[in-house]
# Entry
Amino acid sequence: ADPEAVAEARAHQDRLTKPRGALGALEEVAVRLAGAAAASPPPIPAPAALAIFAADHGVHAQGVSPWPQEVTQQMVGNFLAGGAVANAFAAQVGATVTVVDVGVAADLPPAPNLIVDKVAYGTADLSEGPAMTPAQAVSALEAGIAVARRLVDQGARCLVTGDMGIANTTASAALICAFTGRDAAEATGRGTGVDDETLTRKVEVVRRALLANGLAGPAGGRSRDAGDGRAPDGDVVAGPVSPGGPPAGDVLTGSALRTLAAVGGLEHAAIAGFILGAASLRVPVILDGVIAGSAALAAAALAPDAVDHCVAGHRSAEPGHALALAHLGLRPLVELELRLGEGTGGLLAHPLVCAAVRVMHEVATFDSAGVTEKGA
Amino acid sequence: ADPEAVAEARAHQDRLTKPRGALGALEEVAVRLAGAAAASPPPIPAPAALAIFAADHGVHAQGVSPWPQEVTQQMVGNFLAGGAVANAFAAQVGATVTVVDVGVAADLPPAPNLIVDKVAYGTADLSEGPAMTPAQAVSALEAGIAVARRLVDQGARCLVTGDMGIANTTASAALICAFTGRDAAEATGRGTGVDDETLTRKVEVVRRALLANGLAGPAGGRSRDAGDGRAPDGDVVAGPVSPGGPPAGDVLTGSALRTLAAVGGLEHAAIAGFILGAASLRVPVILDGVIAGSAALAAAALAPDAVDHCVAGHRSAEPGHALALAHLGLRPLVELELRLGEGTGGLLAHPLVCAAVRVMHEVATFDSAGVTEKGA
# Structure
């Protein structure tokens, strides 16, 4: 973040015709985006473009979701036909919708808003070994970077992450454990709605995945931090990142890329690339839910400054999401217990982000409006 | 609320291509608005119209605000010139802005978006006796009803409450104490930013106001409820309302109208009328912050069903606001520590409310989209 732009943005906020700090968390959003853009005021982050990265997961075979795997493909059809919630929300906020097949387990018919950049027909089962090869993870990252560039070339001034992939909250939980040092039981949730028995199985699958990929410390023996979402010093597993600082490095098992490949999904890797692409173009990217949050952990481990360009759109009902956001140092804007994915929570936040930035462009100062400031 | 429309809306939500309940609190918003409109799906609540009710307060003389009283008038000028945060947020969500002078302590020059329906040049000092006569409160209520009708006649399909009045959080705190039975220390906050000394004085002023107007029980001796914001039975002060039920009635000091007149502001009374007007026209009204929340307590005491048409736009940093919303049974949509007023929090919520309703109109069902439902 550019310190001069941050300072100028803060000073400008204090000159506007409102009590200091009266816009709460929205002032911080505007200041952060000024720092990211190295400009105060930062550009209005509109229009927005949603990219829904779709892929399938070998771990689906472990019974971690009540939904059949073909729902990934069916929902892609629904997005392309304009019938999903993401389409309705995108229409509400004036965002375009692009679907990117980076790993659906079927060949999809061509469609105008579909980009096919398929790396594989789904991942391998992460509970038995690496979900992806490092080369596959790199290909998916590159696919995400390319989509970011393409959407910005087409005029987007804000990117929104979306995802579709039956079983992808299992991969997210494993990524969150690997990058934050949390236990599987803390990071794993009910996804789109699993029962108690399936949740228990899902936690076990995440635990097995960490073990199978050399990402777990001594079972259950890890101390916990005080709740800020960061692993305690000396207890890092796979390159946890301090916001604004360098990654803590390869400690036990290797690089962030290998961690992403081991327990991520193809859409997670692509979203991580999408974030890196947005950051390199200095365009803000609104993160959706737990899939994006876990992908952002990977992006941040690869390039810590990328977090400066991220806005946490919402906090989902998935417990791992809050852990990921705390680790990234991001505060979510919308907290309405959404647990849908697709980019829906990110889209809802877009008007809030625009409103925050618009204030910096349009609101009068005390001087210009002839409004008396408060007494000492 | 219409029970058939509520049931139909819930059933429709469960047929849409998303896991059940995956839109969290937004599903409940859509269901409530269906009940209020007696139609499923309910009409899309757009375009929106913001009405900023402006008035001054005799209690300003007690030193409850660091801002000079003339800032009310100056900010009206800022709204009319398009330079305030409310204008920027209204532009973001496509809402019109109308300012209504129901009690500014000065004559305002005519302007295209200004309605002058002045009941008085500010209220009397509520800490020494009634702020308004009952007749003044009725006039302000009628002014608010008329504005609701006018904006809906002009095409608005959603109303948003706004306010401007230096010292109006003091009146709000007194109304909240009177209608919920809470203590002044619980309901009184820092408003637009008072220091510790002023806050202490403000709490004392609210306490004196309740005593001077016969709205306080034995000082400090009132038992508290378990936190749902309602006064315990037998301890009602001035017609607390149970959402959906009749007001608990005139217990100690008389009617809701007399309470509103005693410790309210002219803008509070007008906003209560605005809510009643919206409800009678079956148009949803998004409540802004603590001023609207306290006015809604009065509206609900006068006509409990009016709450069905209300959406709580946000929860402000003011502690009384949470108490008012809990008493009304409303969940706020945005929680970003805003403390500006003007309608800013209500405007931010408008795209969320639209998104919630749009889902009911536009999203495909599992059947229509050919998407497989989850396994048993």
Observations:
- The CA atoms of residues 276 and 306 of chain A lie 6 Å apart.
- The first helix of chain A runs from residue 3 to 15.
- The first strand of chain A starts at residue 48 and ends at 55.
